[in-house]
Structure formats: C-alpha cells, structure tokens
Amino acid sequence: MSAESDQRPALKLRSAEIGVALVLFTLGAIVIFDSLRLGMRWGDEGPQPGYFPFYLGVFICSACAVTIALAALMPAEKNRPFVKVGQLKLVLSVLVPSTVFVALVGWLGIYVSAVLFVALFMRWLGKYPWWKVAVVSIGHSVVLFLIFEIWFLVPLPKGALERALGIG
Amino acid sequence: MDEIQSLMHGFGVALTLKNLALMFIGVLLGVIIGVLPGLGGANGVAILLPLTFSMAQTPEGQTSAIILLSCIYWGALFGGAITSILFNIPGEPWSVATTFDGYPLAQKGRPGTALTAAFTSSFVGALVAVILITFLAPMVANFALAFGPPEFFGVYLLTFCAFVGMSKEPPHKTIAAMMLGFALAAVGTDPVTGTLRLNFGLTPLLTGFDFLVAVIGLFGIGEILLTLEEGLEFRGARAKLNMSVVLETWKELPRYWMTSIRSSAVGCFMGIVPGGATPASFMAYGVARRFSKDGDKFGTGMVEGVVAPETAAHAAGTSALLPMITLGVPGSPTAAVMLGGLMIWGLQPGPLLFIEQKDFVWGLIASMYLGNIAGLIVVLTCVPLFAAILRVPFSVIAPIIIVICTIGSYTVHNALFDVWMVVVFGVFGYLFKKLQYPLAPLVLAIVLGDNAESSFRQAMLVSQGDMAIFFANKLVGTLTTLALVLLFWPLVSWLLAKARGRASV
User: Measured between beta carbons, which residues in chain B are less than 8 angstroms from residue A121?
Assistant: First the structure.
C-alpha cells in the first residue's frame, strides 16, 4: 500500500452522517414500536409504561430526519472526507483485535486474553523484541490479578489456566 | 455562620489519616488518568467506582469513597494541563484552550512557567468554586426541600434544554443524542409500574443499560480510536519543575488577578448551568483575550492565556458538583458518574442529603479544599513522572487501557454482555465525536432518565394529565419558561441573525 492511497477518503462526510442517522432512526423506530405494544396512552392508573418512551422515539426519529435532510442537501464542497483509508486502517487495527479479545475473555478468562492481546499489539504495531513483549504483557496481567483478586477482592472471569493453577 | 461551623465539622470528618492517604492516592491516580489518552475524569471514575462498593458499606466508608472519587476528578482536571502544555495534546477536552498559549510557552523553553501557571490557576479556580459551594449549597438545598415532582421535572427539563441551547453542537444532534440516552435509560423495568419494556425478551436487558458501561465505552474506547487516527507517535518537550521557576511564576501571577476573577466567574456560572468545563475554558480564553492589553499576542505563549482557561475549567469542573449534591442533577458527565456512585452506595442525592447525611456532605465539601491542596502539591512535585508516562509508546499503552476498560465494565455487574456493550458504545463514541453529536447530554440522560420519567409521570398523575401543572406556581413556571427559552434559543438566534442579515443588505 502506498502512502498516497492511504490519503484517499474511505468515507465522505455525507455518507457517514446519513449512515449514523439511519441507525439512530431505526433505534427510535424500535422504541416507538415497543411503546405502542405497551400502550402509550392514559390508562386506568395514569400514563401507561409506553407513554414516556413513545415521545422519546418520536423525538429521535424527527431529529434524525433533520440530520438526514441537512446531509442530503449538503453542498458538495462541504462534503469533506470523513475518514481516510490510512486512518481507517489504524482504527480497525485496534478495533478488530479488541473485538477478538472480548470474545476470548469469555473462553480463556481475562488474564490469559490480556497477555495475548497486549503481546500482539506490542509485537505487531510496536515491533518490540520478544523479551520486552513477554515482560510487559505477563507483568501487566500479574499486576491486574494482584489488584483485583487479592487487594480489592473483585473476581474477574477466569479460564482453564487459572483452574489448572488452582486459583480459579 | 452556620456554614463555617458545618465546614469545621466537615474538616473533622475528612481529616483522618486514612482519608488524607486516599486523597493523595486519588489525586495521583487522577492525574495519571488525565494524562493518558482514552482515560479521563468520567470513565476513570466509572472504572474505579466498582472498587468502592465494598468500601462504602459503612457511613464513614461512604465519605471515604466519595473523597477518593472526587480526588480522582481533581487529579484528572490537573492532569489535562500537563499533556496540553508539554505535548500539545489536550488530555481532556477542557484543556484544549490551554494548548493555545501553553504549548508555545513550552516551545519557547518555559514549560516550567506554563505548568506552574496552569496548576496554580487551576487551584485558584477550584478554590473560588469550593467557597461558592460552601455558602450556596446549603441555601439551594434548603430551597429545594419544598420541591415536588413538577419542580424536579422542571429542573431536569432546564438541565436538558440548557444543553440544546448552549452547546456548540447542532441542536438536532443534541436532541438525538439526549433522547437516545433517555431511551437507553428506559430499557428494562418501568420505574412506576414495574412493567418490562424495550427488552424484547432478552435477559441481559432486564436491568437496562448501565450508564457506567456507556461512559467507559463512549469516552474510553471511543477516545482511543480517535487518538489512533492521529498515528502512534507522541512527541513532546521534556520538563522539570524546580522550586525557583515555581516561585518566579508565583511572583508573576498576581498581575493577572483580574483575569482570574473573570475566569472564575465564567467557570462557576458555566459549571452550575450544565454547560460544563469545556465551553467555560474557551469562553474565559476569549474574554481574557478581549480584555487584555496584550490581546493580540495571545497564542504566541502568554502566561495570561494559560491562566484564563485553566482557572475557568477548574472552577466549572468543581462547581458542577453543586447541583449534584443539592438537587441530584449533575452538571458534567463526571459529576453524573459520581451521582450514580452515590445511588449505588444507597444515598439519595438531593436536598435531603444536607439533613440526613450531614457528615457525608460536609466531609465531601471539606475534602474539596484539602483535595485541591493535595492536588497542587502532587502535580508540582511529580511532573517528571507524569511526563515519563506520556513517553510510553502508544502500542503499549493502548492495549493496556483497553484491557482496563474491559475490566471496568465487567466489574459493574459481573456480566460479559456489558463487555460487548463497551465495544459497541466505543464505536458509537468514535462516530458521535467525529459527527459532532455531544456525549455529555447522552450520559446525563442515561443517569437521570428514570428519575426524570418518574417525576414527570408523578406530576401527571397529580394533575390528571394536565400539562398546566408545569406552570402551576411561580417557581415551576419560571423553571419551565426558562427551559423553553433555552430550548428554542438556537432557533431564536438563527432568526435574529437572519433578520439582521436582511436589515443590513
């Protein structure tokens, strides 16, 4: 990948505005839908459970409609790049491993996943020598273990390794 | 002077060895949080909140816990200045205005002067705000004792309309973000009838969305993603603070007393009205530039240009706690997180706190004085340490912060679902920040949603559905009218500008 292609916009402002507003609009519509099911009128004992959320949904949807309309009418010169390809790559290089990390927490426990996660980052993005990677990633997990499990008695998710060591 | 007596009593509560130690730990943690990208006052306090649950099981423990949390907040307020001045990276949004003159000063070889000026004026701003809290809070609380549901809803309405009228983000986006917050708060159990709603049969949604999870995701992960766009490198000036520079700067500072007074006033006002520290710092910087005789030199490294935003940011950050302890309406996201903490510990924030929990309230107020002194000592002595933390490369610090955010969200309810939600909120935080959706009203709406809805529906029950109850007496009428004025302010000012534009053509 050349530096030039990294400067290309991956997404323009208009598309980003409309995309996010559509997601919020959908959420607002879901709120309205469920409020109608619960009843948004005046019941026997006062306002029904859907009374308040219904108007929230209406507000969300109308505010998003304004956003979408403004974005659609946006003059072309204001339609600046929302995110460049190079920036998006950097953001995804953190977001994707983070998602994998969260998925691993449920399976391996937080300590082992954290070691793998920090090690991956340092090796892949930081290009550190292996011994530094090992010291920081394992040391950081041990410190976390001491703080949470020993000093503050807050149990965190654990996996097979901790069980094998008899501390799970 | 009842207040002085109560305050002395408060010092008695706060001045134990344990509490003093907690103050220094809190400030130290707070500065580190403020210095690190992706961790700030709001999510730093949110992550550490679960650690206080066991601490807060006794009444004295509750005071210790709030001292710890508020000192983290003071530390974060101080910490933001360090990164702004040395690295030109605002660690916190409210220190953006500090970079304008602070970074040029550091570049001119006077980082020590800039840091001392920033810390000292932060301290002054906070002190003014704490004195204000000491004398005003009991009065406000006393006044608010007579509030019923319509009055409380009036206060909530005023708070949220102020966001629409005063934030620099587009009003339709403020409304969208705020209503989304209310909708997230509405998920789970209906606070009045107990009916399940908006959970669509999903078990993890039974208790609704926790604001702590939202704060950690929106501010923590979102901020990391934003910082990453700028690349992985940090470049900054080295800094040492020795006593002679500090004393020299202190000799210079009294010259800017007018700027300090103006900035404190701006800060206190913006903190109590939920505008928050960030607009206050910008406003104070602008005001100082207009009034200063060296106004045109601002931006090239003027000490006055550091004094103004720092004083205002700290004054606003501190006075944001006034509506929180007296009315139960926080003035800033961090104050909202602390309010949530109070509720979790079993305290009901609001006017009754001043009657039922005297030790707690006055201990907290006394700790504001002590905590800021502790803060000043810590930041003046530990600058090299904090600068060293900033030199740790991003590829090491980013994953560690993400792991800490994950743990913070897990410990809220011991639920993996919350950890997934942090990632989702993180993506939203990143997109919202880039598209100018304000995050503060969203967070405040999640925290206050249930209370606002309950007070609205109780008021409606009293009046049998007649909206006129919100204008029934002078007090609630004034609140509602003010709120409506603020709500439509963007529209009014737009129409005025348009009319003026037409008149001049």
Answer: 395-396, 398-399
Q: 3-class DSSP state for residue A43?
A: strand
- Interface A-B, measured as beta-carbon pairs within 8 A, has a size of 168
Nearest chain B Cα distance for residue A106, angstroms = 7
Contact call for B456 and A28, based on CB within 8 A: no
Token couple for A168: 């799970």
What mean pLDDT do residues A96-111 have?
A: 88
E strands, B146-214, in order? 188-189, 196-197
Q: Are B309 and B285 in contact (CB under 8 A)?
A: yes
Q: Please report the beta strands in B72-176, taking only residues with DSSP state E, as ranges in sequence order.
A: none
Confidence band (pLDDT; 50, 70, 90) for B461? confident
Amino acid at B400: I
Phi then psi dihedrals of residue A43, to 5 deg: -90, -165
Q: How far is Cα B333 from Cα B223, in angstroms, rounded to an integer?
A: 15
Which pair of structure tokens corresponds to residue B204?
Answer: 């993890």
Residue B426: its chain A contacts at CB < 8 A?
Answer: 95, 98
Q: What's the average model confidence in pLDDT over B97-107?
A: 82
Q: Which residues lie closer than 8 Å to B368 by C-beta, 6 or more apart?
A: B70, B74, B126, B130, B133, B318, B321
Q: Which of residues 438-457 of B touch A (CB under 8 A)?
A: 453, 456-457
Minimal CA separation from A76 to chain B, in Å: 17
Is-contact B101 B299, C-beta < 8 A?
yes
In whole angstroms, what is the distance from residue B267 CA to residue B298 CA? 20
The conformation of residue A84, written as its DSSP 8-state character, comes to E
ipTM, interface predicted TM-score of the complex? 0.90
* Single pTM value for the model: 0.83
Between β-strands A42-43 and A46-47, what pairing exists: parallel, antiparallel or unpaired?
antiparallel
d(CA B412, CA B425): 15
Helix, strand, or coil (residue B300) = coil
Instruction: Give the tokens for residue B403.
Output: 């792991």
Span B256-284, pLDDT tens digits:
888 888 888 888 887 776 656 677 778 78
- The CA distance from B472 to the nearest CA of chain A, in Å, is 19
* B406–A63 CB contact, under 8 Å: no
In sequence order, what DSSP letters do the residues of B99-151 get, joined into one string?
HHHHHHHHHTT-HHHHHHHHHHHHHHHHHHHHHHHHHHHHHHHHHHTT--HHH
Any residues with CB less than 8 A from the CB of A131 and at least 6 apart, and which?
none
pLDDT class of B252 with cuts at 50, 70, 90: confident
Contact A91 B228 (CB under 8 A): yes
